[in-house]
Design goal:
This protein is mostly helical. It has 2 domains: about 60 residues; about 50 residues. The protein contains 5 helices and no strands. Helix 1 packs across helix 3, helix 2 packs across helix 3 and helix 4 packs across helix 5. It is rod-shaped and about 105 Å long. The termini are far apart.
Length: about 130
């Protein structure tokens, strides 16, 4: 008598994450692969045979796609193209211009709110120029 766990067979889907309805459909698809007549599965699920065939094909296609070879390790960073560098430069320029506009608005608001500060600054500049 061989040791180890007994094979689960069509019960393999029970340990997976998913709704009970999805697990029931997976079990039905696996049972048809194991030889259970499609008519019985149709009767149990209340569907037509064409739907069971489609269900089985979709399940097998999804399994096959998951088993495709994938590159190992972390994906490489793609080298920036000339277009990427141009876009990054334009984004930096836009950000700089936004800051300039915000500063100009703040200066304008200060000038409107406290015009005497601008006059005081003008007088200081005039006196400094006279000293030269």
């Amino acid at each position: 008598m061989p040791g180890g766990r007994p094979p689960k067979g069509v019960d393999l889907g029970e340990g997976l994450e998913g709704s009970e309805e999805a697990k029931k459909r997976l079990r039905a698809a696996l049972e048809t692969l194991g030889g259970r007549p499609i008519e019985e599965v149709c009767e149990e699920l209340g569907v037509k045979a064409s739907w069971v065939h489609e269900l089985r094909a979709r399940a097998l296609q999804a399994a096959l796609e998951e088993l495709e070879a994938k590159p190992v390790g972390r994906p490489r960073k793609k080298e920036p193209t000339g277009e990427d560098l141009r876009i990054a430069a334009l984004e930096r320029q836009v950000e700089s211009l936004r800051i300039d506009v915000a500063l100009a608005r703040a200066r304008e608001e200060l000038h409107v709110a406290m015009p005497y500060l601008a006059e005081r600054e003008r007088v200081k500049k005039t006196k400094a120029e006279e000293k030269k």
